[in-house]
């Protein structure tokens, strides 16, 4: 438990500043690189696990802030973006991001959001989650193999 608490402290004091997650910091504390959807999704997932362990409402607030920023930065009406900004003029969004060696970051953020909503009501996050599920439904039904983590999120939503 002490190790998890230390990781939480590191994430929130060194990598999370002013509604922004950074990938890393150099020896002088300067931010190195902007965090991606994957970074936000897995940090939020880990902090949610801590909040479920600690059962402290302030820990859920921390998770909610990170989840909220992730949705704002990476989810658009056209779908998910992996990065906040793109060097390509015609960068596109995907309705649903496929799984790879690890679960899709969009699915992880979606699952974390759904678990968070069991603890804290947030109408905006609920609407965004439902929009993401609805938008990706056709893709999920056409090829569930590549979107198993999204299917898991949909099943999670259907649990009592």
Task: Explain what you see.
This protein is globular. The relative contact order is 0.12. The chain has helices at 2-15, 37-54, 57-74, 105-119, 123-142, 148-158, and strands at residues 16-17, 20-25, 31-34, 75-76, 79-80. It contains six helices and five strands. It has a three-stranded antiparallel beta sheet. Strands 4-5 form a two-stranded antiparallel ribbon. It has 160 residues and is mainly α. The chain has one domain (36-158).
Helix content: 55-70%
Shape: globular
Amino- and carboxy-terminal Cα gap: 30 Å
Strand fraction: 5-15%
Q: Main beta sheet: strand number and arrangement?
A: 3 strands, antiparallel
Structural class: mainly alpha
Topology:
Elements: H1 2-15, E1 16-17, E2 20-25, E3 31-34, H2 37-54, H3 57-74, E4 75-76, E5 79-80, H4 105-119, H5 123-142, H6 148-158
Keywords for this entry:
single chain, 160 residues, 5 strands, 10% strand
In brief, what are we looking at here?
This protein is 60% helix and 10% strand. It is mainly alpha-helical.
């Amino acid at each position: 438990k002490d190790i998890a608490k230390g990781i939480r402290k590191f994430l929130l004091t060194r990598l999370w500043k002013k509604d922004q997650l950074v990938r890393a910091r150099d020896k002088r504390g300067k931010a190195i690189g902007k965090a991606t959807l994957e970074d936000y999704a897995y940090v939020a997932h880990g902090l949610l696990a801590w909040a479920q362990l600690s059962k402290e409402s302030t820990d859920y607030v921390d998770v909610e802030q990170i989840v909220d920023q992730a949705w704002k930065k990476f989810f658009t009406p056209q779908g998910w973006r992996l990065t906040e900004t793109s060097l390509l003029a015609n960068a596109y969004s995907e309705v649903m991001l496929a799984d790879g060696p690890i679960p899709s970051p969009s699915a992880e953020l979606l699952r974390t959001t759904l678990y968070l909503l069991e603890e804290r009501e947030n109408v905006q996050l609920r609407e965004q989650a439902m929009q993401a599920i609805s938008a990706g439904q056709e893709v999920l039904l056409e090829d569930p193999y590549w979107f198993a983590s999204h299917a898991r999120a949909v099943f999670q939503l259907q649990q009592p």
